[in-house]
Design a protein that fits this description.
mainly alpha, 3 helices, about 0% strand, DUF2934, DUF2934 domain-containing protein
């Protein structure tokens, strides 16, 4: 398992633990849920042909491209200025 994937699962499992009131004794359930969520994210977010065969992970070039896409926020739409025409008071 890559360090990046491991870190994501760790953080998600911790978040689940916090959401459930920090109750002890459910760490395995939180870990398994976080792992399932990561698997589903990878399954949905990446086309099959970009994954390394059998590893469940993507190659470095694909990972970089995904990160660039995720870190690029779309520009908000420009607000149109009201037009001043005949009969409009300024």
């Amino acid at each position: 398992m890559s360090e990046e994937r491991q870190e994501w699962i760790n953080k998600r499992a911790y978040s689940l633990w916090e959401q459930h009131g920090r109750e002890h004794g459910h760490d395995r359930e939180h870990w398994e849920q976080a792992t399932r969520e990561r698997d589903e994210l990878e399954r949905i977010a990446l086309p099959h042909h970009l994954k390394k065969t059998g590893s469940g992970e993507v190659d470095d070039a694909t990972r970089k491209a995904i990160n660039v896409t995720r870190n690029t926020s779309p520009t908000p739409p420009k607000k149109s200025k009201p037009t001043i025409g005949r009969g409009n008071v300024v």
